[in-house]
Amino acid sequence: MAIGKTLKVTGAGKGKGSSLWKQLYRYRWLYFLLIPGILFFFIFKYIPMYGLRIAFMDYNQYNPDASQWVGLEQFVRLFSKRSFLPVLRNTIVISLLKLLIGFPIPIILALMMN
Q: How far apart are CA 104 and CA 111, in angstroms?
């Protein structure tokens, strides 16, 4: 596009809402390409959120409908245990070691194979 030329916008100001439906129909195949991504996020990110409610319940595995809501009682009990700090420290150490050992090894192997 040359300097000084203006870009003409088509469809602006024509009919109320008709241009939106025309655009949706015109690019319908691109919207169909969004379906797998939307399904992925719905199945693997949104549906598992239902299971998070177990953290706030006295969960009854035989009759989940009979489970009672306890609020933050489970978290208070978790943080008040004496074993919480060693368990937290071990978790952080293991995660850091996984990063330090697991991250460079594939890179080193790739460089060796090259």
A: 11
pLDDT at 95: 96
Handedness of CA 29, 31, 36, 39 (dihedral sign): negative
Rounded CA gap, 40 and 55, in Å? 24
Q: Give DSSP secondary structure letters for the chain.
A: --TTPPPPPSSTTSSSSHHHHHHHHHTHHHHHHHHHHHHHHIIIIIGGGGGGGGGGEE--SS-GGGPEE-TTHHHHHHHHSTTHHHHHHHHHHHHHHHHHHHTHHHHHHHHHH-
Q: 76-104 pLDDT, tens per residue?
A: 999 999 999 999 999 999 999 999 999 89
Structure tokens at 28: 């319908």
Taking a C-beta distance cutoff of 8 angstroms, is the pair 104, 90 a contact? Answer: no
Locate 101 and state its tokens.
């050992």
The DSSP bridge partners found for residue 69 are 57
Amino acid type, 94: I
